[in-house]
Fold these 2 entries.
Entry 1:
Amino acid sequence: MRLETERGAISISPDVFTNITGAAATNCYGVKGMAVRSTTDGLVHLLRRESMAKGVKVRFNDDATVSIELHIIVDNGVNLTAVSRSIMSEVRYIVERITGVKVKNVDVCVDSMVIG
């Protein structure tokens, strides 16, 4: 994404958005980690911290905003609505504060629940 300011242009890599988003989401209560669905066996796998960007999809919109889709794994027994709302709020706040780019929407997909 490229931002124009009065002092010049700023280019922000998509990796910056995925790393910030993944870190913000995994810091929320009830989130076990980011998830990815395997193409070979179709199972959902928990991602390690260094590869959690695979569970984040960032789409750059024409109106200089971003749309974010997260795939997560949550702990057993958490309120899914409350956790999802918390993630949406936290991700929107952190991304807008750090990058200065407006977040149009945050979609949270709960792919699995970990028991224990």
Note: The domain at 2-114 is CATH 3.30.70.1350 (Alpha-Beta Plaits).
Entry 2:
Amino acid sequence: MSIDIKVPVLPESVADASIATWHVKVGEQVTRDQNLVDIETDKVVLEVVAPADGVLSDILDEEGATVLGEQVIAKFEEGAGAAQAKEQSAPATENKSSNKSSNKGESVEIKVPVLPESVADATIATWHVQPGEAVSRDQNLVDIETDKVVLEVVAPADGTLSEILAQEGETVMGEQVIASFASGAAPAKADAPAASSDNDKASGAENDALSPSVRRLLSEKGIDAASIKGTGKGGRVTKEDVEKSLSAPSKAAAPAKATTEAPAPAGERTEKRVPMTRLRKTIATRLLEAKNSTAMLTTFNEVNMKPIMDLRKQYQESFEKRHGIRLGFMSFYVKAVTEALKRFPEVNASLDGDDICYHNYFDISIAVSTPRGLVTPVLRDCDNLGMAGIEGGIKALALKGRDGKLSMADMQGGNFTITNGGVFGSLLSTPIINLPQSAILGMHKIQDRPMAVNGKVEILPMMYLALSYDHRIIDGRESVSFLVTIKEMLEDPTRLLLDV
């Protein structure tokens, strides 16, 4: 049966593509899912694979030709010549399959997960398993890093990793084959040194519980994770634990270091060059783009936090008993921002070319510091959440960020961003807009300051607010009024309940 080989559907932002490389010639027999041709766009390289076993009968567009989405570029004959080839290779195939079943089990391709449209490619971060090593089902094989999240690829079954096709640091595409896996094979269990295999598994399982940044730091410093006492959830070793261990050298670590490194002469000046991670490069690109492509301006105000602090002190215990979570400041910030966004729709809007897109929903990005860098997962439908729901949502996002478990769905969207540099001691800052949003609110350290109240000096817990906004869409009147609304609601939390 004849089948048309077509260019895949191209995204709306991509007008056309080019034939990059034909991997199969006319008349050549191929197997199902074998790559026939690479098609290059201005963003990604697309692979077109064989729809079935058969023969490529005709190539309509040669390498270098410009093609459109769903254009027919070749003809394919399903099953042509397949029967003869199967008969000729039957004995060899049977021998191979019998050997495979007896030695390695069924062969499975390990592929990169499907990447979202907004993510062009990814990078192999860390292989946790080496070729020939036996693994169990759902054990993490490799970490794949995109510009937003780290994806884990797990073993599809009990078996052995046969071959690694993409090494650490290589750039890979969605659904690209990066390794071969033999399911059902467990040679390590039959061999004599079973104890060492068990130790390796335990070590692998322990490494799987570590975040990519911790594993990378341990590898760079040559430290065994078992020698560090973890302070994270469930005893997990965090980056801070590793850094603390480095700053306070242990007795056990000293001899090991002496054997691998010569003592540095006194006064020697050293430096270390480390490639930027994909996340760090993306952060740098986006921040620079925001500075260069927006008319960004920052307005400031200050807020008296005493009413909220008194309210938390009064109801903290009963709130935690009822909802099972502590009442923090962020729920008040999110609630005040949500109410202010309702009153000033321009701040909740975004620019799309020459159009202003007004959003009738309230998805707020919360800046979270992770071992890999600053990310902004989204807390959705904040207008429908109570204080406990907001606290629970923020805690869940923060834990995901710390453990490297944030998904693409957690990161996409968001109409407005809140960042709290006060947790690190920042007294004042000018936050940068998180594109394509139009504004970002910076919260800061709460600090006692002498304030004039009714002609008298009082010591009050004060905090500076900073609103950075895109002046192309938000005028000064709206920005200042928006910030004053947040100030008034935080200084009188009753307004949040009465909507006044």
Note: The CA atoms of residues 184 and 464 lie 61 Å apart.
